[in-house]
């Protein structure tokens, strides 16, 4: 494949992964029977406005609702109010919307239905500080954890215990109404309790866990937070809590299903797909080194499969920040991959966030070609310095190799594809 | 497979990988025609005494020789003198042996043959400080680079430029004799110029490269080293150097061939082998997280292949030291893998150094079982604390799960196998 064909191929894989998680496609399949009573639609997340639009467009009955999404991720709705708020650091608009959602679901009857449309990003967007805490308290803890390299599970445990809505508290507030949650997963393992901090799902974690996480990362919480963690008198609903026992959840889009959609595209174009994992975690630059080793193996020995092949993976890598540059984890992964591959012939890659936003930039991701390093060197752009400075955005921007989709209105986490073409110059040297 | 069967299976894979690189098996296949003149056998490395023994046992003519190996890695030879020296930090015995080797190959004629038996570890074992440098000077730089996390390529570049024997200088000294090098590779990519710092191979690196590496890691070299790097007037032989143009090299054992031997054992036992790479690099604990992601995928979705399967890989991971505990990179990898897998059912692993020594301990590696974390917790052994303290040896020692082979007298670098058994409790939950 020539350079333009390989770029187009990789972009088709990425687009297929995103399309497979498009709310307009998947939400209609999962509509419940309309209830005898009222229908309330609530929700939060990067995909949730698009989910709301798909829901109301296909819902036969009355409804009212309120959904929070990230700035720029709104979709025009007629009956469900859409609020845009800040992400990943919570703001007042998210807080006010969360309070209004709690009010909306309180006092419902057993015949009423609450549909919760939850997707990645809901943790930050659906922010209702627990009694006695301010948004500033929660923001301080959130920022400290984000910068410390805490895992999403750890951040969510803390969030649930500082919140009036997360960790099943939303479902508890809606009791005795029926609660149905439609989920688009962006988390490794697709655990409903983790996606968006599980506002309608029983919480397996405790105040003791939250205190251990704060200690682990040496975070010094504001006094009100410390007092709440110590008091531990407002525990999240556990699985046997009658207020939450009836709540149902449905996974309507996942990283794995999107990877399988990309694999189908590859197969149709006679490229063998290898799905390495839908939940790959690790430091972005180290994950890149391991994947470079696998890509070398395909080229050198035809293992695990011979080229042309494409190594597909999802999940969420981490960037422990060292520099002050621009770029998210996908561009960082790709820059480290370029350095590790050292221009390996016939090898192209794409990495992007399926929500369309890598980190907090305007790109979804970037593309790597065999001559990425050579083109950078020709422009005087130092790959290793950009990696060390956490400045992968600037690196790929200088090459014109950013992938820009705009917000996709869905989110099944990261998508990576490393395409290894066959060797047109004869068999690979062993 | 039950616990004992799985442990036995993994050990058979590891043993097969080692056996495939056994000098007694491979050296006889590669004997050259005896020369008209004299035959001198020299060499260095963890496998080199065993290579020497195999060589002299199968050599039809006269010979004399001297080979340096690591303490504990000697093999009884009748005609070739074996010297044991320290590794990974060079000592006086290695230095004296290197000087004697240089003397032995000087003044030879065109009809004479020098056979160099080179294997991993030769860099540290074959130490001849360049004129004006002391062994202490080289040791200081070596130690600083080892601790800094420099790559083996980077360490070797520096070694070649501070040495009287590395980087092709041995072959240059033997000119005009024929030089044949038999290599057992322990380096990613199997580049003869890298294995044992390539004493008989033209060196592509320069004094400028060496200076850049010192600067990169902030190493402050002793004054004599700094002066030599600055003067740069004793460059290593380059590929067009007539003293080295005739030198030949043969790769007689490699990580890949050993992985393929393990794959054959797996296949014979109806377990599907997946060779991920013979040259996987990266921080041990991060490589473990990525491999855990792939192992989860096999179990959860049957990708890249369904269980029962075994993920095989070689190469060399790195431990950037943070604690003061005991353990090499293989036990560190395995401990991080245990933490990442969180007791995944049916999942076992072995990781070991094929030379029989993980780091500087008495074990080759260790074994992981699905209940590794549970057994550790029951004994009050804290997995995360041991990982943070670089104390994986103590962790697996406490569980009785060290793998001890003793020195194997060969070295094709690390070997990792993650065995994922089929789910005996019915299909995996998705």
- Largest interface, Cβ cutoff 8 Å: A-B, 27 and 28 residues
Widest β-sheet, arrangement of strands of chain A: 3-2-1-4-5-6
Secondary structure: helix percent of chain A? 25-40%
Global structural class of chain A: alpha/beta
By DSSP, the count of extended strands of chain A is 12
Shape of chain A: globular
Here the CATH topology of the largest domain in chain A equals Rossmann fold
Properties at a glance:
430 residues, glycerate kinase, domain 1, homodimer, Rossmann fold, alpha/beta, 2 domains, 19% strand, 16 helices
Give the helices and strands, then pairings.
The structure is a homodimer of 430-residue chains.
Chain A: H1 3-19, H2 23-26, E1 39-44, H3 48-58, E2 64-70, E3 80-85, H4 92-105, E4 113-119, H5 122-125, H6 135-148, H7 152-161, H8 169-174, E5 178-184, H9 207-216, H10 223-231, E6 248-253, H11 255-268, E7 272-283, H12 284-301, E8 309-318, H13 329-341, E9 347-353, E10 365-368, H14 372-378, H15 383-388, H16 392-399, E11 402-403, E12 414-420
Parallel strand pairs in A: 1-2, 1-4, 2-3, 4-5, 5-6, 7-8
Antiparallel strand pairs in A: 8-12, 9-10, 9-12, 10-11
Helix pairs in contact in A: 1-11, 7-9, 12-13, 13-16
């Amino acid at each position: 494949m020539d350079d333009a064909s390989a770029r187009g191929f990789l972009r088709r894989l990425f687009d297929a992964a995103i399309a497979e998680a498009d709310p307009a496609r998947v939400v209609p399949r999962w509509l419940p029977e309309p209830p005898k009573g009222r229908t309330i639609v609530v929700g939060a997340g990067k995909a949730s406005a698009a989910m709301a639009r798909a829901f109301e467009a296909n819902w036969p009955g009355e409804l009212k609702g309120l959904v929070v999404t990230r700035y720029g991720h709104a979709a025009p709705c007629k009956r469900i109010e859409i609020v845009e708020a800040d992400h990943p650091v919570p703001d007042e608009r998210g807080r006010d919307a969360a309070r209004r959602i709690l009010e909306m679901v309180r006092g419902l009857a057993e015949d009423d239905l609450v549909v919760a449309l939850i997707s990645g990003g809901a943790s930050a967007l659906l922010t209702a500080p627990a009694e006695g805490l301010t948004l500033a308290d929660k923001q301080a803890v959130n920022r400290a954890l984000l910068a410390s390299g805490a895992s999403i599970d750890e951040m969510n445990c803390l969030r649930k215990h500082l919140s009036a809505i997360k960790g099943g508290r939303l479902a508890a507030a809606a009791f005795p109404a029926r609660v149905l949650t439609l989920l688009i997963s962006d988390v490794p393992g697709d655990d409903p309790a983790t996606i968006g901090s599980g506002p309608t799902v029983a919480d397996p974690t405790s105040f003791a866990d939250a205190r251990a996480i704060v200690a682990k990362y040496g975070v010094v919480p504001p006094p009100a937070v410390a007092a709440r963690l110590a008091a531990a008198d407002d525990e999240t609903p556990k699985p046997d809590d009658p207020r939450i026992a009836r709540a149902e959840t449905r996974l309507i889009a996942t990283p794995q299903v999107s990877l399988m959609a990309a694999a189908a595209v590859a197969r149709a174009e006679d490229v063998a797909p290898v799905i390495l994992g839908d939940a790959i975690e690790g430091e972005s630059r180290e994950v890149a080194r391991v994947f470079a080793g696998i890509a070398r193996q395909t080229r050198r020995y035809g293992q695990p499969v011979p080229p042309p092949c494409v190594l597909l993976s999802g999940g969420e890598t981490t960037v422990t920040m060292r520099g002050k540059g621009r770029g998210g984890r996908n561009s960082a992964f790709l820059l480290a991959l370029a350095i590790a591959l050292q221009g390996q012939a016939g090898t192209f890659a794409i990495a992007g966030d399926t929500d369309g936003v890598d980190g907090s930039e305007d790109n979804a991701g970037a593309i790597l070609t065999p001559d990425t390093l050579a083109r950078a060197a020709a422009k005087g752009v130092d790959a290793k310095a950009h990696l060390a400075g956490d400045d992968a955005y600037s690196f790929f921007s200088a090459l014109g190799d950013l992938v820009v989709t705009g917000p996709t209105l869905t989110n099944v986490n990261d998508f990576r594809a490393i395409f290894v073409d066959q060797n047109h110059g004869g068999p690979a040297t062993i």
